[in-house]
Q: What sequence folds into this?
């Protein structure tokens, strides 16, 4: 049918209907769009970069790249949108504050991890030098006192271990906690062991100081101070187990 | 085209624009899903699993558009400390959803292997994977689609986490196991 066949009256009505209905349709579209935006701000807002990866070789990749371009993932009118999936706003809303908290937490826990490993060395050295800082011989027999240098060296290693240990603990204790997270997995054993070696790391230097005082007085270490070595060993074993526990299960893979 | 026809075409275009007037031929809903990433370190092999994905597919004019999204924090590796670290390195609080879009022809083989081009939004980046094979099988009214997305840390500019100063492998393949049901 030619346009001239449409009477001016019909044409006028058609145009009028179109213009009258169009704002309603546009309003409906904007309402839809507004609802989607309000409910679900698309998680990854900025498309900072786009990379294309093919599961085939490079020649295939070119072909597939073209294919990808021609199919370019794009939304036709009926393509589903994030708003159709039914995520709650909390699930989809970007949370810069939480990201900052996680960043700080990770930063502190990385320092905790590094200091914790560094602490192993003076701790092991203090254990090794422990027998050299101990008087030898039974009561009633000749007692060989340790040299002052050995005593000082062992005491210095103990002091370094204690300082590093509590610095390590600081970064774990004061790392920000993420609300609503239930602890699962190896971290529970790691924390439980922290109570054991934490108590040990308080007791060991105190007992060590008592033992040192007795040695300096020319006495053989006695009383509760004689438990210094045993407590130190138990603390080190618990400390080592705590390190291994966060690494467990270890599966060597090449 | 005559200029006089323009208002009528405008009317038709405006009338067809709202979704309500352009119904999809078929709609698909994601019934069940298991997404799992695999992380490899010389001392550890870790799998993080999520059952929290939601998805929809619409077929129209011979093409099917699928959208699947899962909250980044829904992946569970069995260790809450590791999961929090994963959310941190993937900037999962700022970009809380991993989103996969794909378009496949409606006539794609209903059984066997299909090859899909995927667009994955994750950690504030978008990566495209072309020609990714997926296995399709049917069970009653359900269609099961399984496959592996060959993702890597570098695709999404993620600094690979390290343990004892050794970084994890760049490859973090994501296994996809989904069950879909036609909605109409």
A:
């Amino acid at each position: 049918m030619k346009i001239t066949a449409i009477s001016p009256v019909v044409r006028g009505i058609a145009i009028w209907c179109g213009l009258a209905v169009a704002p309603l349709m546009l309003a409906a579209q904007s309402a839809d769009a507004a609802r989607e935006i309000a409910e679900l701000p698309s998680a990854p807002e900025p498309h900072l970069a786009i990379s294309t990866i093919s599961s085939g070789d490079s020649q295939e990749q070119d072909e597939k790249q073209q294919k990808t371009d021609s199919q370019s993932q794009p939304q036709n009118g009926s393509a589903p949108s994030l708003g159709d999936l039914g995520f709650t706003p909390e699930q989809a809303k970007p949370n810069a504050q939480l990201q900052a908290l996680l960043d700080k937490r990770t930063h502190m826990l990385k320092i905790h991890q590094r200091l914790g490993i560094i602490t192993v060395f003076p701790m092991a050295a203090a254990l090794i030098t422990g027998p050299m800082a101990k008087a030898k011989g039974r009561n009633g027999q000749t007692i060989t006192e340790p040299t002052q240098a050995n005593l000082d060296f062992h005491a210095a290693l103990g002091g370094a271990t204690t300082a590093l240990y509590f610095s390590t603990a600081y970064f774990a204790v004061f790392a920000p906690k993420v609300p609503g997270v239930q602890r699962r997995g190896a971290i529970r054993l790691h924390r439980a062991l922290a109570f054991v070696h934490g108590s040990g790391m308080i007791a060991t230097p105190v007992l060590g100081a008592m033992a040192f005082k007795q040695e300096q007085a020319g006495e053989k270490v006695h009383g509760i101070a004689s438990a210094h070595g045993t407590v130190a060993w138990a603390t080190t074993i618990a400390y080592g187990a705590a390190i291994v526990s966060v690494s467990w299960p270890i599966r060597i893979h090449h | 085209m005559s200029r006089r026809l323009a208002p009528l075409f405008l009317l038709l275009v405006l009338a067809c624009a709202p979704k309500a007037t352009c119904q999809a031929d078929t709609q698909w809903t994601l019934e069940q899903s298991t997404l799992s990433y695999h992380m490899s370190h010389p001392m550890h092999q870790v799998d993080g699993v999520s059952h929290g994905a939601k998805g929809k597919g619409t077929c129209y004019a011979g093409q099917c558009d699928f959208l699947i999204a899962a909250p980044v924090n829904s992946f569970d590796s069995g260790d809450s400390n590791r999961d929090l670290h994963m959310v941190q390195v993937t900037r999962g609080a700022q970009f809380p959803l991993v989103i996969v879009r794909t378009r496949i022809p409606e006539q794609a083989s209903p059984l066997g292997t299909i090859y899909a081009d995927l667009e994955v939004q994750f950690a504030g980046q978008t990566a495209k994977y072309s020609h990714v094979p997926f296995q399709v099988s049917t069970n009653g009214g359900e269609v099961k689609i399984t496959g592996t997305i060959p993702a890597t840390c570098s695709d999404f500019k993620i600094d690979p986490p390290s343990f004892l100063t050794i970084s994890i492998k760049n490859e973090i393949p994501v296994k996809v196991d989904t069950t879909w049901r036609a909605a109409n």
In short: Residues 8-22 of chain B have pLDDT under 50 and may be disordered. The radius of gyration of chain B is 20 Å. Chain B touches chain A through 79 residues (CB under 8 Å).
